[in-house]
């Protein structure tokens, strides 16, 4: 086995891109079960610790100090199929994990003056994203990942990049005529069907540690400021295989029998941002809210390793010895990511002591996300150009309500999350519900959220070869339990 830190330039361009920018910028706000049950729409109403991550002005509406903790169960079921095959069978996978959606406290103060009724301090940890999922696809189709490596090696005049270097060391890429043009076994029969399979397992989450200060002025205007520290922990494991089912004498692809390509990546890091929020009480029933979030400046590190095994025969008629060549690479890379500005506005209506309705609209231009690669200016420009070309601005809508019956609370919510991709008008919608009990000094809430959506996945991409397109259908369910105390 050969362990190398190969040329990182091309690896940067392929490892950081549109998908990675969205992973750390397209937040799916979670916090308390009450926040989840009402579709995350509590910014105009406040008095929930989760709003430290959406509109910190809501913390000014706490009348008593409060501590909450919210464990949650996350279940992601996936159906996957390779569609460019004659028999696109579906493979089902599921991923279940426990995590902490929220923990924190709000400390209330006594009235400071006749006008300033109180100034409250909040210390919270709220969930922004869950990355746990697993999918598997399998099928027989025309094309090979070797064609992608060949194309890049010839386009960039060499095999110094991360993945093409692996392919060269494993004997998949070779310069047969010594003319600077790299060859592969599969070009001997580019119409040969290969059986391919890939297992992809993703793990991790993103949570935000917030330090908030909020004041209530004359029961009319609430102002809040929050400094957030998002913390990223993400890992992915991929195992891709190709096999000539007719290998041996007279096989579809001369020399070739199979290959195995394994990739492991772990991304860790943290960022910093600030949020300013306002809530204006028009009268006892109506409230208006607004908030602005600065970009989050992330500092991230990737640790990665890859392994490639190439199994082939010694000569074309496959009467010779069966050989196997293995290559491996590992390395790390530090980089930055700046997320877009976020703006939101909301309206809340309170039905006395009987409940409320609330809605919030959030504007984000994902095309403004930018990576920073120190020492790789060309790759940095290429990736950021792709982000600005492929992503767009969106409006996300959160709607929710609560009905109060004595000490009990019943909640419903709906979250409309627009696609951030240019020329894609689809939405990723979420339905939520909840139930709670509110005592004098103790409360407990249960919240549920469900989302159904599809994603396209491509195990590799090249210009001149058949595209391998995988459709993943995700069924995501979250269940959260909040336990809280007032003091």
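Q: What amino acid sequence fits the structure above?
A:
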């Amino acid at each position: 086995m050969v362990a190398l830190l190969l040329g990182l330039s091309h690896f940067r361009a392929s490892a950081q891109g549109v998908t990675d920018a969205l992973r750390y910028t397209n937040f799916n706000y979670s916090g308390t079960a009450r926040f989840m049950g009402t579709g995350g729409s509590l910014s105009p109403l406040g008095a929930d610790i989760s709003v430290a991550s959406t509109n910190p002005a809501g913390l000014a509406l706490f009348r008593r100090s409060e501590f909450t903790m919210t464990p949650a169960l996350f279940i992601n079921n996936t159906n996957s199929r390779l569609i460019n095959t004659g028999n696109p069978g579906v493979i089902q996978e599921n991923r279940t994990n426990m995590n902490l959606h929220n923990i924190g406290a709000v400390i209330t103060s006594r009235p400071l003056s006749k006008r300033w009724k109180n100034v409250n301090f909040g210390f919270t940890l709220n969930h922004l994203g869950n990355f746990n999922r697993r999918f598997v696809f399998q099928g027989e189709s025309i094309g090979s990942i070797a064609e992608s490596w060949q194309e890049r090696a010839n386009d960039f005049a060499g095999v110094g990049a991360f993945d093409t270097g692996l392919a060269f060391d494993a004997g998949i890429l070779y310069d047969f005529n010594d003319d600077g043009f790299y060859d592969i076994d599969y070009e001997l029969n580019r119409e040969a069907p290969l059986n391919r399979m890939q297992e992809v397992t993703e793990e991790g989450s993103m949570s935000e540690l917030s330090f908030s200060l909020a004041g209530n002025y004359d029961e009319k205007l609430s102002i809040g400021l929050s400094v957030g520290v998002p913390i990223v922990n993400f890992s992915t494991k991929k195992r891709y295989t190709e096999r000539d089912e007719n290998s041996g004498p007279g096989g579809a692809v001369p020399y070739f029998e199979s290959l195995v390509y394994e990739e492991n990546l772990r991304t860790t890091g943290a960022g910093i941002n600030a949020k300013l929020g306002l809530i204006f009480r028009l009268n006892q029933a109506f409230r208006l809210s607004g908030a602005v979030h600065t970009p989050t400046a992330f500092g991230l590190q990737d640790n990665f390793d890859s392994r490639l095994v190439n199994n082939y025969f010694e000569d074309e008629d496959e009467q010779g010895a069966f050989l196997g060549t293995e290559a491996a690479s590992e390395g790390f890379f530090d980089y930055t990511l700046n997320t877009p500005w976020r703006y939101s506005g909301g309206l809340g209506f309170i039905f006395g002591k009987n409940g409320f309705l609330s809605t919030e609209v959030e504007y984000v231009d994902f095309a403004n996300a930018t990576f920073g690669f120190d020492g790789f200016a060309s790759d940095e420009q290429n990736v950021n150009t792709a982000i600005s070309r492929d992503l767009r601005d969106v409006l996300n809508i959160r709607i929710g309500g609560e009905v109060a019956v004595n000490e009990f609370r019943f909640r419903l919510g709906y979250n409309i999350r627009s696609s951030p991709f240019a020329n894609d008008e689809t939405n990723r919608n979420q339905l939520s519900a909840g139930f709670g009990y509110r005592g004098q000094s103790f409360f407990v809430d249960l919240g549920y959220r469900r989302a159904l959506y599809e994603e396209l996945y491509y195990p590799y991409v090249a210009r001149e070869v058949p595209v391998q397109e995988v459709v993943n259908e995700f069924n995501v369910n979250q269940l959260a339990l909040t336990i809280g105390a007032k003091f």
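Q: And what stands out in the fold?
A: Residues 5 and 390 are 31 Å apart (CA to CA).
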